[in-house]
Write a structure and sequence with these properties.
Length: 119
């Protein structure tokens, strides 16, 4: 799947939320969004610094802030990845992301993808 297809699939899960799958569709949408963000980073590294895409996502996040020299964009990337990673996991006493919060995270991933594609 492309980044756009992953984001579309996540948006589709949100749009078709079903009470029978409460608790499942938000994590599935968050996982698709995080994978889209990770794919975006992989594609960026393939163009700008081949080989970096093979290190862990956490290492890439540490490196992206130094490499981009754009604290706002690197902060947006790190925040989106952290929030989506957290939303992918079940926490017994946590409500998780709401539909609106998931939509904002998807918009952030889309924004990051556009910004990194232009660099």
């Amino acid at each position: 799947m492309t980044v756009g297809e992953q984001l579309d699939a996540a948006r589709d899960l949100i749009a078709r939320s079903d009470p029978a799958t409460t608790g499942l569709w938000p994590r599935a949408a968050a996982l698709l969004a995080r994978q889209a963000l990770e794919r975006t980073l992989d594609e960026y590294w393939e163009r700008r610094a081949p080989g970096v895409q093979h290190v862990s996502a956490r290492a890439q996040l540490a490196y992206v802030s130094d490499y981009l020299r754009d604290p706002d964009l690197s902060g947006e990337i790190a925040y989106a990845w952290g929030a989506l990673s957290d939303a992918c996991h079940h926490h017994a006493y946590d409500l998780g992301l709401t539909e609106a919060e998931l939509r904002r995270r998807l918009d952030a991933v889309e924004h990051v993808a556009k910004q990194l594609a232009s660099q």
